[in-house]
Amino acid sequence: MDKTFAVRRLEVVHDGPSVQDFMERWPALFQEDQVKKEFRRITAIPLESTFLDKLDSYTPQLLSVMRSKGGVAGTKIRPILDTLCQVHGIEHQRYAVICSLIEYFGESNDDLFLKCQENDRSSQSQTVKILLVYTQDDPVDPVDVVLAIDGAEVLTKCGSKTKACILLMGLIYALNLEYPHQLKNTFDFFQKVILELDPKRLLNKVQTLKTKLLAK
Questions:
Q1: Is the pTM of this model over 0.90?
Q2: What ranges make up the beta strands (E) of the chain?
Q3: pLDDT digits (tens, 9 = 90+) for 69-103
Q4: Where does residue 59 fall: left (phi above 0), alpha (psi -120 to 50 degrees), or beta otherwise?
Q5: Are 155 and 29 in contact (CB under 8 A)?
Q6: Would residue 45 be called left, alpha or beta, if left means φ above 0 and alpha means ψ between -120 and 50 degrees?
Q7: What whole-number distance in Å separates Cα of residue 114 and Cα of residue 123?
């Protein structure tokens, strides 16, 4: 994969193949370890460790800002943060912070996460989505976390909802995709604040939040 990187980047950037065609041509890319390696080939940054370290370091400030948010967004954020008193653990905290962040920007978690049953994964109509796959026996913990892009399940067994967000960032870079317009602020924050890639050109809402975080 290292040796074919230049060919692959030329193809994906200049030819713009469909996701399905790219999966057929480069199937080895659509594995967790290769998504991370491809991201590092493109950016020189380790994807998962950088994302988690930065997210965790910002978490106290993010929680403070989120708890003080008013209006419609604040009303949607409070139930998410209330779950931190009921469910403990770093993974749930990370997921709650990400969900709160999405609502803070006036965007919707439903535009990123889709709950579905194991026998009805509904990936064909999804442009960019994280599928949370449940069974009737356990409607609380998903049995699978899947990335769906352009109607194709491009990565399964992501392990956790937070890791799915991380791997989705990696695939967006690997496939040279645009961010979903309805989640543009969230992904701008992931890229420029969490991963610190092109950090000087932030969208207005992201810049405002970053200023608040640095003031905490």
A1: yes
A2: 113-117, 128-134, 144-149, 152-155
A3: 999 999 999 999 999 888 889 999 999 999 999 99
A4: alpha
A5: no
A6: beta
A7: 10
